Amino acid sequence: MSREAGSPLLEEENIKPDTRHGVILYVEDVSVSFDGFKALNDLSLYINDGELRCLIGANGAGKTTLMDVITGKTRPDVGKVSFGQQVNLLEMDEAQIARAGIGRKFQKPTVFENLTVFENLELSLHGDKGIWANLFHKLSGEQSDEIAQILHTIGLVGECNMQAGALSHGQKQWLEIGMLLAAKPRLLLVDEPVAGMTAQETERTAELLTSLAGDHSVVVVEHDMAFVRSIARKVTVLHQGSVLAEGSMSEIQSNPEVVRVYLGEETGE
Ligand SMILES: Nc1ncnc2c1ncn2[C@@H]1O[C@H](COP(=O)(O)OP(=O)(O)OP(=O)(O)O)[C@@H](O)[C@H]1O
Question: What are the residue boundaries of the ABC transporter domain, all occurrences included (predicted)?
Answer without folding.
Answer: 25-265
